[in-house]
Write a structure and sequence with these properties.
single chain, alpha+beta, Jelly Rolls, 3 helices, about 25% helix, elongated, YjbQ-like_sf, UPF0047_YjbQ-like, YjbQ family protein
Length: about 140
């Protein structure tokens, strides 16, 4: 069985946002075992799995990424959409736009301290579209 749904995440400001429950709310009933593939249809945000308990991790990740890929660099030529645009594309490439999560006993089989993140790299990215493909 392969099933696919597409949905929008609520708009968020720049940052690393825990979205595990929001994703789960859009999914159909999951099979007993299988795989969940998530794909975000944008080039200025990303998906990641990381710490789901301590919010300071999300803040620290934002600081790390902003230090790694700075805005307003003189060598950027793609600048028409603002100072956060080209850095958001670079951060997206570094992180990635998809995740594959095992399904066990009808649930996403994440570790105790793992959660799904939307890594929003634009100041105002808007609603992000996600395609979820369930194989099981």
């Amino acid at each position: 069985m392969i099933e696919q749904v597409e949905f929008s995440l609520k708009p968020r400001r720049r940052g690393f946002h825990l979205i595990t429950q929001e994703v789960a709310s859009h999914l159909p009933v999951l099979p007993e075992k299988g795989l969940l593939h998530l794909f975000v249809k944008h080039t200025s945000c990303a998906l990641s799995i990381n710490e789901n308990y301590d919010p300071s991790v999300r803040n620290d990740m934002e600081c790390i990424y902003n230090d790694l890929v700075k805005e307003n660099q003189p060598y950027y030529t793609h600048t028409d959409e603002g100072s956060d645009d080209m850095p958001s594309h670079a951060k997206c490439s570094l992180t990635g736009v998809s995740l594959t999560i095992p399904i066990t006993d009808g649930h996403m089989n994440l570790g105790t301290w793992q959660g799904i993140y939307l890594c929003e790299f634009r100041d105002y990215g808007g609603a992000r579209r996600v395609v979820a493909t369930i194989v099981g």
